Amino acid sequence: MDRRALLGAGVAAGVASLATPSARAQEKSAPASFPLHFAPHEGMFKSLGGDDVVKQLEFAREQGFTAFEDNGMAGRPVEEQERIGKALERLGVTMGVFVANFGTAFGKRSFSSGAPEHLESFLADLKKAVEVAKRVRARWMTIVLGERDPGLELDFQHAHAIEMLKRGAGVFEPHQLVMVMEPLNPWTDHAGLLLAKIPQAYMLCKAVGSPAVKTLFDIYHQQISEGNLIPNIDRAWDEIAYFQIGDNPGRNEPGTGEVNYRNVFRHIHGRGYTGVLGMEHGNSIAGAEGERAVIEAYRAASAF
């Protein structure tokens, strides 16, 4: 996640209805789509699609992309959220994640401390996120669990986080929304955060036991934190509701680093995943040439 810029049985059942009937009709007349629901973000196709986010969405859909994500969606004006939501519906594009809890995500021992003020802030952010989700037809929202407390045993910190997540689940469950916890790597981007690895996120999901609390598996972060990508995907499968993409090193499109994305995508697809994979990375080459390179990189990584 962070460029500072599912319910039921987990991943396979996470997106039972990725598009409305009108969206599915639109898809029939669209160019060939990718085998997985890859989600570009604003600015990724700015040179080829234009400055306006809706024009970029239209361009991306013409290239076969069927999802979109926007970490900062909750900070957009309501009118802009509604405009994007209408465009997504018209194009048959699924809304991916936006960040639900910037207020308790970074720079605070929010989930680790058990402090009442952090719980209050978190719940307020989630209630706001519910309204944003309605406007843009979103189902998943990213949450970040804040910083570790070096003066407190980790098990106590986990206990505080579990209680906070349970309270948050109470906000999302009535709306059938899902918060996806994102483990972030401590070595390159996010030192000192509470949540860094997939087994840790899996444990928290099991402890909370709610369909509203799942895991975001960011392949870039986990390649750095722990590697062993496909085995960890399999072990955590029933608690993963969302994926994000970025090659390492560099955090750019597939094929620019060490991850064998064709094998990873083939595996995820073979397991029956029908959810969204957010393209949360940069373009390795600037301008229109780089944007074409991104499209070709996804074509090559999807040739399985």
Characterize the structure shown.
- There is one protein chain.
- The chain is an alpha/beta fold.
- It has 13 helices and eight strands.
- It has helices at residues 21-29, 46-49, 53-62, 78-91, 102-105, 110-113, 116-136, 154-172, 198-208, 219-225, 229-235, 261-270, 287-301; strands spanning 37-39, 67-68, 94-95, 140-143, 178-181, 213-218, 240-244, 276-278.
- The chain has a six-stranded parallel β-sheet with strand order 1-8-7-6-5-4. Strands 2-3 form a two-stranded parallel ribbon.
- Strand 2, helix 4 and strand 3 form a beta-alpha-beta unit.
- The two termini are 27 Å apart.
- 49% of the residues are buried.
- The model is unreliable at 1-28 (pLDDT under 50).
Short description, anyone?
By secondary structure, the protein is an alpha/beta fold. 44% of the residues lie in helices and 10% in strands.
Question: In oligomeric terms, what are we looking at?
Answer: single chain
Report the biggest beta sheet as strand number plus sense, adding barrel if it closes.
6 strands, parallel
Order of helices and strands: HEHHEHEHHHEHEHEHHEHEH
Helix content: 40-55%
* Strand line-up across the major sheet: 1-8-7-6-5-4
Gyration radius (Cα, Å) is 18 Å
The counted number of beta strands is: 8
Low-confidence stretches: 1-28
